[in-house]
Each structure stands twice: as structure tokens, then as C-alpha cells.
């Protein structure tokens, strides 16, 4: 009977360890939704691997320094999001190009940030001390992905993971309302 009891105890300990190791990161900023944004505004939420100004965590939306624009011309839709803190210490920019007919009605749109040709295209740039110093520190995306999960005539939402300069971001979110 002792071997069976020992095996049962070990099984319980193993399952407990498995579930505790899969625990959600309580320090991760909440995802951004376009529903909470005013027209012309944007938001982003993410954590970086190293200090990005005040901390590794960024969660900004609907401030005076957030902007969302969408313009269509010659079959191309150009979407720009700028999300910055009011004091100018940290800013993230998204520059996305998709076909003018693109939408997420039939599924997500995936953008490879390593690609420099074809559609869709994307670019992410992070800046520290962007508005307050000529000595800003910045990094632009060289790899990673953007997944657009919602794209309508008036809104965009998505997730992203990228390396931009010295900063690595996994499971970030962004949104904009045009």
C-alpha cells in the first residue's frame, strides 16, 4: 500500500507544479481594446525585457499624445498609430500597410516584421525620451510579428512580438480608433 500512496502523492505534487508554472503573469499590463478609445486615439500595452524609461511595463491609451490615422489611396491602406506618455518619456509607433480591401472578417491578418516587400507590411519603433531630449534612445523592429485581430473602417486591434533595438516585446497589444 505504501508504494501506491507514494505514487499518488508524487502525482499530486507533479500536477500542482505543472499548474503553478503555467500561472499568468500578474504584472503583465492588460490588453488594449478599441472600444475604450476616443476617435483619433490609440493605445498600447506591453512589457519589455529591459528598462524602457520608467519601467519595463507600458500601458498607455487615450492620452493627449496618442494618435490613430488611416488613409486609403491606390488600393493601399496606410495605418499609423502613435502612443506616447503625456510627459514624452516613452513612445511607440506602428506603421502598417495593408490592401485597401483588407479586413478581419475572414480571419486575422499576420505581418512578418522581417519582410520588406509585398503586403501586408509593418514597422514598429520605440523611443525613450522622445519629446524631451535630442538624446532620445530608440529602436526599430528587425524581427517579429504583428497579428491584426480586428480591422474595420473605424478600428484596429492586434497583438505583437518584436525586437526593436535593445528591447524585446512578447505578447504586446495595440488598438486604434480612426
TrEMBL record:
Annotated signal peptide: 1-20
Keyword annotations of the record: Signal
Indicate whether Signal appears among the record's keywords.
yes
Could you tell me what this protein is called?
Lipoprotein
Q: What is the lineage of its organism?
A: Bacteria, Pseudomonadati, Bacteroidota, Chitinophagia, Chitinophagales
Amino acid at each position: 500500500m505504501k508504494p501506491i500512496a507514494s505514487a499518488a502523492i508524487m502525482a499530486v505534487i507533479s500536477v500542482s507544479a505543472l499548474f503553478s508554472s503555467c500561472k499568468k503573469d500578474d504584472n503583465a499590463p492588460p490588453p488594449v481594446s478599441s472600444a475604450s478609445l476616443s476617435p483619433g486615439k490609440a493605445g498600447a500595452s506591453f512589457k519589455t525585457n529591459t528598462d524602457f524609461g520608467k519601467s519595463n511595463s507600458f500601458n498607455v491609451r487615450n492620452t493627449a499624445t496618442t494618435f490613430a490615422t488611416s488613409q486609403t489611396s491606390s488600393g493601399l491602406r496606410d495605418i499609423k498609430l502613435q502612443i506616447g506618455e503625456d510627459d514624452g518619456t516613452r513612445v511607440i509607433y506602428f506603421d502598417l500597410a495593408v490592401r485597401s480591401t483588407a479586413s478581419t472578417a475572414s480571419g486575422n491578418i499576420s505581418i512578418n516584421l522581417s519582410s520588406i516587400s509585398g503586403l501586408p507590411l509593418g514597422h514598429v519603433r520605440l523611443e525613450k525620451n522622445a519629446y524631451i531630449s535630442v538624446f532620445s534612445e530608440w529602436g526599430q523592429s528587425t524581427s517579429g510579428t504583428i497579428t491584426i485581430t480586428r480591422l474595420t473602417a473605424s478600428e484596429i486591434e492586434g497583438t505583437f512580438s518584436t525586437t526593436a533595438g535593445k528591447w524585446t516585446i512578447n505578447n504586446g497589444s495595440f488598438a486604434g480608433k480612426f
